[in-house]
Amino acid sequence: MKFNIVTFGCKVNQYESNMMKEKMLHHNFSYTDVLEEANIIIVNTCTVTNTADNKCLKEIRKIKREYPKAILVVAGCSSQNKQDYYQTLDINILIGNKDKSKIADLILDYLKTNKNYLKFYNERALEFEDMEISDYSNTRAFIKIEDGCDNFCSYCIIPYVRGSVRSKDFAKVIEEAKSLSLNNHEEIVLTGIHTGQYKSGEHDLSDVIREIAKIDGIKRIRLSSIEVTELNAKFLDTLKNTPKLCNHLHIPLQSGSDFILKKMNRKYDLAYFAHKIKEIREIRPDISITTDIIVGHPYETEELFQETCRFAQAINFAKIHVFPYSKREGTLAAKMPEQVSDNEKKLRARTLINISKELEENYYKKFKGKTLDVLIESITNNKSMGHTSNYLTVTLDEVLEIGKIYERRL
Hints:
Layout: E1 2-7, H1 11-26, E2 30-31, E3 40-45, H2 50-66, E4 71-76, H3 77-81, H4 83-86, E5 93-95, H5 103-113, E6 117-119, E7 141-144, E8 146-147, H6 158-162, E9 166-167, H7 170-182, E10 187-191, E11 199-200, E12 203-204, H8 205-212, E13 220-223, H9 233-241, E14 248-250, H10 258-264, H11 270-283, E15 288-295, H12 302-315, E16 319-324, H13 342-365, E17 371-380, E18 383-388, E19 393-396, E20 405-409
Parallel strand pairs: 1-2, 1-3, 3-4, 4-5, 5-6, 7-10, 10-13, 14-15, 15-16
Antiparallel strand pairs: 8-9, 11-12, 17-18, 17-20, 18-19
Helix pairs in contact: 12-13
């Protein structure tokens, strides 16, 4: 039987979908990129915003309408968050974020019994669910080392659907990295819901980075993101003394207003954030620092938004990922007065995106004529495309081997 996986959302979901794909292949199912050829369709959902929920539900309705004979499997954050609604959709196998590693077994049981399967857990009281990938469909390979979040930012539903912080066993992380290296992956991306909170016995994130750096075949180690509060002395020392750690850190800011940061229940103020960025740049002056910023959070006036714009420009980010605030039922921010209108959120998002484009262009210009390492990811029209360690997109007028890293002058 043939299967297809539709993935929404973050790098953790991408990792988990790749893991499910490996499990299915191991159980002698065949993968197809063509949805209409699939006997089994797995949808891995996201609920980070209302838009994410709507996209997932739209896709599921389309699959049910256009491929009614396919076995439909739905998992992930959106199904976990909106369990009652998903149960009305007559889905063959419906789960949340737990038991994705058992997906092939669940499908095999369904094929025997022809009975729909439904199972949800209390996500706040779970152990880490072991998952492993030996090969990855992309040139860079992800390793999920952590799950869950305990921050409870006022705008965020994720702690409720992903559960509490829990981490993968340190030895298993290193073994997975070695396995991926043997399959010619030269860049490893460490990911999680709150990656910087990784803890396995006495080992933390810095220990993971340092140990993976000892693997000869791995040339780059990248972090999906890290909170500014986790940039402690040990991590900064790791940044200084681990050349394989990519010259790029994604550090979410969320707001450039101290007042809004408090309303968001973030664990730092602007002075702390700016000081940490200064410390990083003292170690690596040319590092790419990218960020997330939410516009239109409750209580954000035009004046407070302008504070965010000025702070973002002062920090001189390499790129800003801009998100209009999305009201998530069940969070503190959803109950707050002084909600910002959708139209105002769109205007503010457009303004900040334009600032980001200018900052991104200025950062690119700094490296014109310099020699950087490029991981080749695709070939089109006899041209090679890839990313540098500091995550610049580069197109080269030559055909190079996909998955390999080359030094080239930009």
